[in-house]
């Protein structure tokens, strides 16, 4: 009786027998979404292009991969088998290609960080970063989600409170401690004519701006001053810290913020911090792939981390009342 022998996967003949890679990719995305329309959106092609690729793949393989039921797609048993293979091998191929790209020092370093930190701390320092690390091409992306590393991102900056949570094969480096404090415009008449540092109790009578992303900021600050947060007079609330700071700059109330975000405003005296800043339990951290693991770490990762640590630990300017 004849015995079937699996083809040698290293032989040119077996590679030539593979269907089109574009067709396999179109099938893989359509299988994940169970929709040709959503696959077309993800691949930035037309619905007809995805449908043609899938039909050609079915003709090449001589088997039906989807049951067309209504407007959706349902995998057949053969489709399930192929989907498991494409999901495994295409994702593995994508990881290897990404790692090879990151191993090149000329490849961009993609850094994710909170939008407020990006706008108020990072962008004003891009010139200094370029002077310190001229070989680094940095791509910045804003994200306010507390997520770790994801595909296409080489590092994540975020404020975290210990104990830190992170995925396997990731490392988190503490760059600096968080310090928060109240800030306001210097030309308001809320503090009167006194040049002395106002008592913390003064804040109990002022309109306080707050943000949903940091609901405990004012209560935490009050507890460190021996004040009851029950007496606070909350004014306008905002979805993001960046909006709160813009409202503070136009004089709508007193904001509360990490000092990192208002260093330039304090230096230029657009804002003052009469009560200074106090440390919290939170830290600004940088999460990177664990060195020596399956995912390559960008060659400039350490140099960038060291630069961030130096900049973040430079004593900030604290502008009080004149």
Supply the key terms:
D-Maltodextrin-Binding Protein, domain 2, disordered C terminus, 36% helix, 10 strands, elongated, two-stranded antiparallel sheet, 2 domains, 322 residues, alpha/beta, six-stranded mixed β-sheet, Arc Repressor Mutant, subunit A
Q: Give the second-level CATH assignment, the architecture of the largest domain.
A: 3-Layer(aba) Sandwich
Q: Helix and strand succession?
A: HHHHEEHEHHEEEEHEHEHEH
The total number of structural domains is 2
Radius of gyration: 27 Å
| β-sheet strand percentage | 15-25%
* SSE-based structural type: alpha/beta
The dominant shape is elongated
Largest β sheet strand count, sense and barrel closure: 6 strands, mixed
The first-level CATH class name of the largest domain: Alpha Beta
Uncertain segments of ≥5 residues (pLDDT<50)? Answer: 1-13, 317-322
Distance between the ends = 99 Å
Task: Describe what you observe in this structure.
This protein has 322 residues and is α/β, with parallel strands linked by helices. The chain folds into two domains: 12-102, Winged helix-like DNA-binding domain superfamily/Winged helix DNA-binding domain (Arc Repressor Mutant, subunit A, Orthogonal Bundle), CATH 1.10.10; 158-293 and 305-322, 3-Layer(aba) Sandwich (D-Maltodextrin-Binding Protein, domain 2). Helices cover 36% and strands 20% of the residues. The chain has a six-stranded mixed beta sheet, sandwiched between helices. α8 (217-224) links the parallel β7 (208-211) and β8 (234-238). α2 (21-33) crosses α3, α2 (21-33) crosses α5 (77-102) and α3 crosses α4. The longest helix is centred in the N-terminal third of the chain and has 26 residues, at 77-102. The radius of gyration is 27 Å and the shape is elongated.
């Amino acid at each position: 009786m004849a015995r079937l022998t699996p083809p040698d996967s290293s032989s040119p003949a077996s590679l030539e027998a593979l269907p089109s890679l574009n067709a396999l990719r179109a099938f893989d995305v359509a299988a994940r979404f169970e929709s040709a329309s959503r696959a077309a959106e993800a691949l930035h092609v037309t619905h007809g292009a995805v449908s043609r690729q899938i039909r050609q793949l079915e003709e090449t393989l001589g088997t039906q991969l989807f049951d067309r039921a209504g407007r959706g797609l349902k995998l057949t048993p053969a489709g399930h088998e192929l989907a498991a293979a494409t999901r495994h091998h295409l994702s593995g191929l994508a990881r290897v290609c990404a790692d090879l790209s990151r191993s090149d020092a000329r490849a961009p370093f993609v850094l994710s960080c909170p939008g407020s930190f990006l706008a108020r701390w990072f962008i004003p320092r891009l010139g200094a970063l370029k002077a310190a690390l001229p070989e680094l091409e940095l791509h910045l992306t804003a994200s306010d989600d507390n997520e770790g590393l994801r595909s296409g991102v080489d590092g994540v900056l975020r404020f975290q409170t210990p104990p830190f949570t992170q995925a396997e094969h990731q490392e988190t480096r503490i760059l600096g401690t968080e310090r928060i404090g109240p800030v306001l415009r210097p030309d308001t008449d809320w503090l009167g004519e006194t040049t002395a540092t106002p008592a913390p109790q003064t804040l109990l009578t002022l309109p306080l701006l707050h943000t949903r992303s940091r609901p405990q900021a004012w209560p935490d600050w009050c507890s460190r001053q021996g004040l009851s947060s029950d007496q606070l007079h909350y004014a306008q609330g905002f979805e993001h810290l960046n909006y709160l700071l813009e409202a503070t700059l136009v004089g709508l109330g007193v904001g509360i913020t990490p000092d990192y975000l208002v260093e330039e405003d304090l230096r230029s005296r657009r804002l003052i911090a009469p009560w200074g800043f106090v440390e919290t339990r939170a830290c600004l951290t940088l999460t990177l792939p664990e060195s020596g693991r399956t995912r390559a770490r960008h060659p400039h990762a350490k140099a960038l981390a060291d630069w961030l640590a130096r900049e973040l630990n430079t004593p900030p300017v604290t502008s009080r009342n004149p």
